[in-house]
UniProtKB/TrEMBL annotation:
<feature type="domain" description="FAD/NAD(P)-binding">
    <location>
        <begin position="16"/>
        <end position="280"/>
    </location>
</feature>
<dbReference type="InterPro" id="IPR023753">
    <property type="entry name" value="FAD/NAD-binding_dom"/>
</dbReference>
<dbReference type="Pfam" id="PF07992">
    <property type="entry name" value="Pyr_redox_2"/>
</dbReference>
<keyword id="KW-0285">Flavoprotein</keyword>
<dbReference type="GO" id="GO:0004174">
    <property type="term" value="F:electron-transferring-flavoprotein dehydrogenase activity"/>
</dbReference>
<protein>
    <recommendedName>
        <fullName>FAD/NAD(P)-binding domain-containing protein</fullName>
    </recommendedName>
</protein>
<dbReference type="InterPro" id="IPR036188">
    <property type="entry name" value="FAD/NAD-bd_sf"/>
</dbReference>
<keyword id="KW-0560">Oxidoreductase</keyword>
<comment type="function">
    <text>Putative FAD-dependent oxidoreductase.</text>
</comment>
<dbReference type="GO" id="GO:0050660">
    <property type="term" value="F:flavin adenine dinucleotide binding"/>
</dbReference>
<keyword id="KW-0274">FAD</keyword>
<dbReference type="GO" id="GO:0005737">
    <property type="term" value="C:cytoplasm"/>
</dbReference>
<comment type="similarity">
    <text>Belongs to the FAD-dependent oxidoreductase family.</text>
</comment>
Length: 363
């Protein structure tokens, strides 16, 4: 049920759980708790999107048919509120459309903020437009050398090898969120696919004229179009004026305890990229946080003792970045590898089938 009314709907069950953020972690919590509590899922968009399939969807828009999933498809028994949370006050969450949602338990999963369309159909149209832009360009500039920029460069260079791709990155190496070995291997891979990688420079996107771009070092680049792939801001700015402001660390992350409760708040949990857990910010870890939180909420809602709550141990530094349809670079705790072997793990279906299954959907 999608709702944006300002009146609270009648409650069916005793405990009310409000989940803020319908991304990787929040969608799983909402789906898993829907038959155990009155669950409200608050998200500014009507759909959950599998983030790691988004760059493939730019070169093959039909992928988005499976990776962009209406919340209503996996979350049938709760209430979906299509608005942004703006405050938490007096045991209620306030949303931008003026509604209030009381809770017994709150789960905050607002990961990263992204400016994407509200409806699934608009998002699918956007992917088709982006693909059209790629297809009609001879030369493409990618700004940003994190996972998004690297994966996009990989997709374009594999699917459209005749296009001239230039990737400009402000930092001294690509993929700075993982180790230097992975960066070097990725740089070599992209260069071997004729992607021009320019490090330690930025691009002034305000002064683009006639396909001419200026870099911070005064270089001139020519491209038919560009894609901005710089990091998205963490989705916690809205918490700065709430009762949780004291629980934010200096980087704007919510400090949580071992049970994933926000420090100082026994009935508020936080999961995913927004937490201060010392580990890489990865979706598979957000899913683990979701599983621990679901266990703990079920225990608390059935009167279980706090001492029996499940605890979470930070994950090890594993990351997989796809490089087109068959290859990838993978960082494991003791080894970094690139090529078809890690590609077999991720790059074919990009875990889309697996993620859909986790939401009890047809893969
Ligand atoms: C290109 C790329 C590739 C990646 N590849 C992988 C991979 O292969 N494997 C992997 O494990 N991880 C990968 N990741 C990382 C992964 O996507 C993130 O770690 C994961 O999305 C974090 O999940 P989350 O639930 O914390 O937040 P998100 O998935 O970012 O979801 C946040 C949700 O909160 C909503 N929101 C934001 N603000 C508000 C508000 N005020 N009120 C209500 N809702 C709000 C947003 O709309 C969104 O739905 C990749 C990331 C990128 C960018």
């Amino acid at each position: 049920m999608v709702s944006s009314a300002s009146e609270e709907p009648p409650r069916r069950r005793e405990k009310r759980v409000v989940v803020i953020g319908g991304g990787v972690g929040g969608s799983l919590v909402a789906k898993s708790l829907q038959s155990f509590a009155d669950v409200v899922l608050i998200d500014p968009k009507e759909y959950f999107e599998i983030p790691w399939a988004s760059l493939r969807a730019m070169v093959e828009p039909s992928v988005a048919e499976r990776s962009v999933i209406d919340h209503a498809d996996y979350f049938m028994s709760g209430q979906i509120v299509c608005s942004a949370a703006v405050d938490i006050r007096d045991g209620k969450v306030l949303t931008a459309d003026g509604s209030r949602f009381p809770f017994d338990y709150l789960v905050i999963a607002t990961g990263h903020r992204d400016l994407v369309p509200r409806s699934r159909s608009e998002r699918l149209i956007q992917y088709r437009a982006e693909c059209g832009k790629i297809k009609s360009a001879n030369s493409i500039l990618i700004v940003g050398g994190g996972p998004t920029g690297v994966e996009l460069a990989g997709e374009i260079s594999v699917d459209f090898p005749d296009k001239k791709v230039t990737l400009v990155h402000r930092g001294s190496r690509l993929l700075e969120f993982i180790g230097a070995k992975a960066s070097q291997k990725t740089l070599d891979w992209l260069t071997s696919r004729r992607v021009e990688v320019i490090l330690e420079q930025s691009v002034d996107l305000t002064s683009v004229s006639d396909g001419t771009y200026q870099t911070s070092a005064g270089e001139t680049l020519k491209a038919d179009c560009h894609f901005l792939c710089t990091g998205k801001p963490i989705g916690s700015s809205w918490l700065r004026e709430t009762i949780l402001k004291e629980s934010l660390d200096s980087r704007g992350r919510l400090m949580v305890d071992e049970q994933l409760r926000v420090r100082g708040h026994k009935n508020v949990f936080a999961i995913g990229d927004i937490t201060d857990i010392p580990e890489l910010k990865q979706g598979y870890l957000a899913q683990r946080h979701a599983e621990v939180t679901v266990k703990n909420l079920k225990l608390l809602m059935t009167g279980g003792r706090e001492s029996k709550m499940a605890t979470y141990k930070p994950g090890s530094a594993i990351a997989l970045v796809s490089l087109g349809r068959k290859e990838a670079v993978a960082q494991f705790p003791l080894i970094t590898v690139i090529g078809c072997l890690p590609g077999m793990i991720k790059s074919g279906d990009l875990f889309v089938g697996k993620t859909r299954k986790q939401l009890s959907l047809n893969p």
